[in-house]
Specification:
Elements (H helix, E strand, L loop, with lengths): L1 H36 L14 E3 L6 H10 L7 H4 L6 E3 L6 E3 L4
Antiparallel strand pairs: 1-2, 2-3
Bound molecules: zinc ion.
Length: 103
Amino acid sequence: MFGFIKRFFEQRRRQREIEAIHQEAGRNLQQWRESRERGEDAFCPDCGAVLFFVCPGVTTAEEIRTFAEESAEYSGNKDALNGWIHPGIYCPNGCVEVLEDYV
Ligand SMILES: [Zn+2]
């Protein structure tokens, strides 16, 4: 009985932690998109590097190649070096990788 109650509270606490992480991520995403709309750089919350946005029809293959070549995380990524990355938001050091779907 008590074991059951303990598990219940543990599960609930874990769920709250996950929700908090998602909320934090959502706030970051919102801020990054707003910065981008204002034409300003957005920065990685972990390492402070400028985040790279990949938007279909906007970001050129050349920009992706340059990002990959200068990035610690993506300089070994063949697709990126060939000018292709899944649309999204990336930290050059690999802390942030948000894949976005454009439908
Ligand atoms: Zn980073």
